[in-house]
Design a protein that fits this description.
Elements (H helix, E strand, L loop, with lengths): L18 H21 L3 H17 L8 H13 L23 E6 L7 H12 L4 E6 L8 H9 L3 E4 L6 H15 L2 E4 L7 H5 L8 E4 L15 E4 L2 H10 L5 E4 L14 H6 L7 E6 L13 H11 L3 E6 L18 E5 L9 H6 L2 E3 L7 H9 L3 E3 L26 H13 L1 H20 L3 H15 L15 H13 L7 H11 L2 H10 L5
Parallel strand pairs: 1-2, 1-4, 2-3, 4-5, 5-6, 6-7, 8-9, 8-11, 9-10, 11-12
């Protein structure tokens, strides 16, 4: 194994050289630990460790997007689940409570939050799938469920079931399996990449067909083994899932279904609260903080500093980045025109008040935020795609907007273009209208329900056909290297060692399981 102290940037050596290999070593150690627990018959511990290994591979790219080493551990446990003695006393899922309608969809997600595109995407699906009623099952919801999520489930004649993550994975998976067998026509997976529950729950063929919404298409993920249809946002993701995840069955593109927010009246309050004058130009970015981490190729903070310095009328508002990140901006940045608003507790409208108050939307980079960008376009806001950093998966690709959206891989060209739309109100208004028209056609008036009905019909024909997946060797394609580079900088160049991960492992399993694990596998514990 490589030592963490070797993970240093050196002259003439790319920062991520060796980093992916080190991540792969750590991952293989975790995968072996999960496999050993399974072979010793400690199934709950094996599943917890499968989640730890998947979480590591999600956040530390190993050259894989799926892998039978850990996926098949969860799958094998799921194959034996019906024969296990699993207590269901804590379960709130009872088939007698099943909802009745023409089509019953069980949507399984790990958790939802008051902010972020993931939760809003779940909301949009439930809101617009008018021909279905939903049971939304959250497998690891430790915070209160946003009120607007509960409201949309209720409007669609459904029910909301929340597990907190403190329950046994075996118990939760078995409860979900039995409920889906009696109360679902379709299962839709919207889970986090490190969640083993769906793999365990749907490992047998005696349940409804399973669709996997590929919302984290740039990341390693569990769940491929039980998937009958992969539903992608973009074409690039479909190719990765076929070639790098071994996902068979149906592959289809189903884009976001956005709300028709077509009238844009900039509210005075939002701009006034930020201290902006009518002549100021408000630049807006909505992004999770980690997505803006400079990766050695593109540096969001330096580029924004240059734009603010060149254009005295410009103010930059970032929703999702806290004020302690001011130090990321270089010296000389006009920080009086920098507004870092942090994580906003939002309603169902998300960041819409800021979108409506802005003049220009700037997508974050090196990783983009799909929902926020499209919602900016939907209200006619002039939106600028993020500066390309070499990865097709990290940066959002808006296939239907290709004809009207300009992409930049050169920093000077990007800064010049943003400067043009800052200085030219007529040009940015026309750009906003062009993007709004394209989004209206592709994401609002797009016959979304008809497209979904085709997918549902295909699933009903295929039925449910789960099966183990291959073990994948790590690859070092350009895309892999760029993903590794992103994680390298997000993690400060450090790869957690197996001993350092012991604390994480211990928190994931009960004290009794931990003691048993230490006695059986002392070399790991």
């Amino acid at each position: 194994m490589l030592n963490d102290n070797t993970m240093r940037e050196k002259r003439n050596i790319r920062p991520c050289d060796g980093y992916m290999a080190a991540c792969n070593d750590r991952y293989l150690s975790l995968a072996a630990l999960a496999d050993d627990c399974y072979n010793c018959g400690h199934f709950e511990s094996a599943l917890r460790l499968t989640g730890v290994a998947a979480n590591f591979a999600w956040l530390n790219h190993t050259g894989r997007f799926a892998d039978g080493r850990i996926e098949n551990v969860a799958f094998a446990v799921g194959r034996q689940l019906d024969g296990m003695v699993v207590p269901l006393s804590a379960s709130v899922l009872h088939s007698s409570d099943s909802i009745q309608c023409c089509r019953r969809v069980v949507l399984v997600a790990s958790s939802v939050d008051g902010i972020g595109g993931h939760s809003r995407s779940i909301y949009q699906w439930i809101e617009h799938d008018k021909a279905s009623c939903f049971t939304l099952i959250l497998t690891n919801q430790q915070r209160p469920v946003p009120e607007w999520i509960g409201d949309v489930v209720a409007r669609q004649r459904g029910r909301l079931v929340r597990f907190t993550g403190s329950e046994s994975i075996l118990e939760v998976a078995l409860a979900i399996r039995r409920y889906a067998q009696k109360a679902a026509d379709i299962v839709l997976l919207y889970h986090h990449p490190n969640d083993p529950v769906p793999t365990v729950a749907f490992a047998t063929a005696d349940g409804p067909p399973v669709a996997f919404r590929n919302h984290s298409d740039m990341a390693f993920s569990l769940g491929v083994s039980v998937t009958d249809a992969m539903i992608h946002y973009r074409l690039a993701a479909a190719q990765v899932s076929r070639e790098r995840r071994g996902a068979g069955g149906i592959h289809c593109i189903l884009r976001h279904k956005l709300e028709p927010r077509l009238s844009r009246v900039p509210p005075v309050d939002a701009r006034t609260a930020l201290g902006l004058c009518p002549e100021d130009v408000m630049l807006l970015c909505v992004s999770a903080q980690y997505k803006l981490t400079p990766n050695g190729r593109v540096d969001f903070y330096r580029v924004m500093s240059e734009i603010l310095t060149r254009h005295p009328a410009a103010h930059l508002v970032i929703v999702g980045v806290t004020d302690d990140q001011r130090s990321c901006f270089p010296d000389g940045t006009p920080k009086d025109r920098l507004h870092l608003l942090g994580r906003q507790a939002t309603s169902v409208n998300g960041a819409l008040p800021y979108h409506e108050a802005a003049d220009i939307y700037l997508e974050g980079f090196p990783m983009g935020s799909l929902n926020a960008f499209l919602e900016a376009c939907a209200i006619g806001l002039c939106a600028v795609a993020g500066l390309r950093g070499g990865s097709k998966l990290l940066q959002s690709l808006y296939d239907p907007l290709e004809a009207v959206l300009t992409y930049f891989s050169d920093q000077a060209d990007y800064i010049a273009y943003v400067g043009q739309v800052i200085d030219n109100a007529v040009a940015r208004r026309q750009t906003g209208l062009d993007l709004q028209s394209a989004v209206l056609a592709a994401y609002i008036n797009c016959n979304w329900q008809d497209q979904l009905e085709v997918i549902y019909a295909q699933l009903r024909k295929t039925g449910h056909n789960p099966g183990p997946i291959n073990r994948f060797a790590p690859m070092q394609s350009i895309e892999d290297r760029e993903l590794s580079r992103f994680h390298y900088y997000c993690n400060g160049g450090h790869v957690p060692t197996v001993p350092a991960l012991a604390g994480t492992i211990r928190r994931k399993i009960s004290p009794k399981e931990w003691d048993r694990l230490r006695s059986v596998l002392p070399s790991y514990a």
